[in-house]
Amino acid sequence: MKKKKIIITGSAGLVGLNLISLINKSYSQLYNVIAIDQNKHNINLTKQIFPKITAITADVTKPGKWQNLFQNADCVIQLQAQISHPKKNLYVKNNITSVKNVLTLCKKYKIPNLIHISSSVVISVANDNYTNTKRKGEELVTKSKIPHTILRPTLMYGCFDIKHLGFLTKVIDLSPIFPIPGSGKYIRQPVFVLDMCQGIINLIEREATNKIYNIVGKEKIYFIDLMKIIAKEKKKKRLFIPIPTPIFLFLLKVHSLLTGKNPFISAQLAALQNNDVFPESDWNKELKVKPTKFQKSMKQTVNSPYYKYRKQMKKFED
How far is CA 168 from each of CA 117, 183, 224, rounded to the nearest angstrom? Predict the structure, then answer.
């Protein structure tokens, strides 16, 4: 049986690497995967972990040889995104321009199935560079005439996570004290990345019907309790100290000045404290996925053979 040709853009991040790991484990006989990402370090890591995958370093915001790879593709999975950065132009580049380029190729080569990963922020009250550019990127997809499916996940976590909960897990690893912004009682509805990846696999096998799915976690958990569960699964005894938000923001600025790094930007903290609670969704039934409980999935993540590789991953700095 002929394998389906699957293009994954933005493949060297949390969703991409977990999707590739799932395909490698259970679906390698069905799919020929071409992974594209501009993060050269993480693409090289992809080749190391998954040597049978075709992995290409390329910037999809610019013309290049990577565009020829879309010819005869059966499905394109669009994952690339700028999540955090002080500069607005990078959000425009990676959340809008890149989407335009991928849509142009899907139209040119008559791709029958585009799976676009958006975000739950597009239906939140947030008003920041990430949210606004993700809304625009999603709008470009919905207005195109390309057969597509849009997924809007809430907070995702799992192996290969070096941003989101992955960064916070690193803090838990390194420090006996974990600072919590404000009260820490901000509702989160986390989604285990492998659950969403299974949904993506199931969508590859379906005809695209231009539907949008809100991928909302089935559990409502306070942010501070998420951190405590992670510490417990990692067998780390940690002291969680709530810090007033203005002081927390000041400490972030001091950290940035001393290290030259921005672990969080103020917009991300504001988004956390917006305390959005997203309505229940039957996405799991429609995509035939059984959601994994947070505590069970954290145990699965920590014990995964891939968990060690997160230490080798690097954030892309444009």
Answer: 23, 17, 11
